[in-house]
């Protein structure tokens, strides 16, 4: 966070907060008794310099019924940061504010919802501040399979809602996904994987047949991409994994799924929305290794059920291809070709006896099991090409 931005945060006063807090509490307030702010972990956008950060403002307000606690979320971004100025780019800096302004999130299907927008303000140098409802997650960090299935069904319902012709929003700021970008970034690293598979430290990440399997799918990528272009397009959140999926209870006692962080919203093929749910999900949540394939099958079946609930009657094989080809090319091929050479350069610069980086999340064994499964998904996608071509 830059010093000038910290000064802006400290300048947030009663006049700024009063109307926002009234919207939070759904009532008039007589005064703000206290307020403060704390930084929150900001995810990909903040870690890569695309936003100033995410902050929780909180305090107490005086109402006719006495003091009431309140909290709300501020997400701040700016044109001068590393987000792209291209409206179609995956990292376009204004997208989430535009998504909220468009009303797109006001009519999400079923029990799928988004945090309520309390206000959007523009500041110096075109900085945009997005004030959002603070949603408290009712779920444990680790999900049971049934929760994965429920979310997959809801994502299928969302995809089906926008899968019919002429239902996609006609706006210039929808992203077009990042598969092509990630494959381009992966290209320099592909030739390095064979050597890394023999490296004393990196061999553990590329055991046995993994590096040759990556290379085989890389060489088949154009065949996969050609068929992928035939899969119907829909609206995607593009980052629907555990950290961005919360649970809350509405006034009627019904559980709602709250999708946060709409910065990547755009078009994608049917099945693509499952990729972050499955791949990023299993990079953060420990599971029984023998259940990875079963979880893949379960979320896919429920996603198709969600599609059909909207009246969709297409070919599930096309959807399966959209899921498997995208998961394999992004998670199985591009990710290691981008990340491992980058980490190798950092390791080479470490002083002697320095501890090398550790893998985050559930650990190496699950990382390898997931990677092997993603490569098998690539084989499945290749097998489907002859039927779908």
Query: What is the CA-based Rg, rounded?
Result: 22 Å
Mass-distribution shape: globular
Number of domains: 2
Helix content: 40-55%
For the residues shown, what is the average pLDDT?
93
User: Sheet with the most strands?
Assistant: 5 strands, antiparallel
Strand order of the largest sheet: 1-2-3-6-5
Uncertain residue segments: 45-49
CATH class of the largest domain: Alpha Beta
Termini separation (Å)?
A: 50 Å
Contiguous helical run count: 13
Number of strands: 10
Tell me what the CATH architecture of the largest domain is. Answer: Alpha-Beta Complex
How would you classify the helix and strand content by structural class? alpha+beta
What would you say about this model in short?
This protein has helices at 3-10, 14-25, 43-47, 95-102, 145-161, 179-186, 193-196, 210-219, 221-228, 274-284, 292-309, 316-348, 364-388, and strands at residues 31-40, 53-63, 66-77, 112-113, 117-122, 128-133, 233-236, 245-249, 255-259, 266-269. It is an alpha+beta fold.
Can you tell me about this structure?
- With 389 residues, the protein is of the alpha+beta class.
- It has two domains: 3-133, Phosphorylase Kinase, domain 1 (2-Layer Sandwich); 145-388, Aminoglycoside 3'-phosphotransferase, Chain: A, domain 2 (Alpha-Beta Complex).
- 43% of the residues lie in helices and 17% in strands.
- A five-stranded antiparallel sheet has the order 1-2-3-6-5.
- α10 packs across α12.
- The longest helix is centred in the last third of the chain and has 33 residues, at 316-348.
